[in-house]
Design a protein that fits this description.
With 261 residues, the protein is α/β, with parallel strands linked by helices. Helix content is 49%, strand content 12%. The chain has a five-stranded parallel beta sheet, sandwiched between helices. Strands 1-2 form a two-stranded parallel sheet. The radius of gyration is 19 Å and the shape is globular.
């Protein structure tokens, strides 16, 4: 590969293990997160105490070629995390927001029905995101929330890199992390932000501690790890860096630049 733009340095270790060579490796972070956090984008979301990042695939029954066992295990963990989140919120009188995974109307409808059944009457806000009119809604919902709960969504890692408190649940099953093939992303994860057990008691203790700990303390523990997963450049936002790199590349290739213009 000539140039590879990645979220962070963790992919560099992954590439090395897979013997994939890259001429230039650029850990620029998340382009979409950077755009969502830029001045020209604004959020209308109110604060939510608990933000649940969905990993539910409403379309899974109609998909082919998926690893059925892996997807079923993700769904099991996702469901348990949501039930724990609702139980905790009900007990503590907290507001809940669900960031939908589905991008099309029909799958969003089924996804919302899925969580409504699990919530058993407890109210929550369902945030819809699509690729046309609501492209950044999941980021806005995340950034305007308190603590986020995620099985292992990329959005959770993006939130962590943006300085948000996030708790990951996939780690409750160590064997699953290896079977899923994501060991590189979890090997250095602080225990503060990972579940080691599947019980509600363990979940509750983690959530209470994360809600109580100051943001400064949280960042002191997690920022080094977060930067490895999702880089935050001091010289500009990811989309700005990518734009500069593309401009420079095109300036070195006048023929290509002329065709694009």
């Amino acid at each position: 590969l000539p140039v590879y733009c990645s979220f962070g340095n963790v992919e560099k270790r992954l590439f090395s293990d897979l013997n994939i060579r890259v001429q230039k490796y650029l850990p620029i972070g998340s382009v979409k997160l950077g755009m969502a956090m830029s001045k020209e984008h604004t959020s209308s979301h109110m604060h939510a105490d608990i933000c649940f990042i969905s990993s539910y695939r409403a379309e899974k029954k109609y998909s082919k070629g998926r690893d059925v066992w892996i997807n079923r295990r993700i769904e099991d963990i996702d469901q348990l995390l949501f039930l724990h989140s609702i139980k905790f919120a009900r007990r503590s009188n907290l507001s809940v927001r669900v960031l939908g995974k589905a991008r099309e109307d029909e799958w969003q409808r089924l996804e919302m029905i899925h969580y409504e059944k699990l919530a058993d009457g407890f109210p929550f806000e369902y945030v819809r995101t699509d690729n046309e009119f609501r492209e950044y809604e999941s980021y806005y919902g995340l950034l305007s929330s308190g603590l986020s709960i995620s099985c292992g969504s990329t959005l959770g890692f993006e939130g962590l890199s943006a300085g948000k408190k996030v708790l990951f649940g996939a780690t409750m099953d160590v064997n699953f992390i290896d079977d899923w093939g994501v060991r590189h992303y979890y090997s250095d994860m602080p225990q503060l932000i990972s579940l080691q057990q599947n019980s509600f008691e363990h979940f509750s203790c983690k959530v209470e501690y994360l809600r109580d700990i100051s943001l400064d303390e949280f960042l002191e523990i997690t920022s080094s790890y977060a930067c490895q997963i999702m880089n935050q450049s001091p010289i500009g936002k990811p989309h700005e860096i990518l734009h500069q790199k593309l401009e420079h590349h095109l300036s070195q290739n006048p023929v290509l630049d002329g065709h694009i213009q």
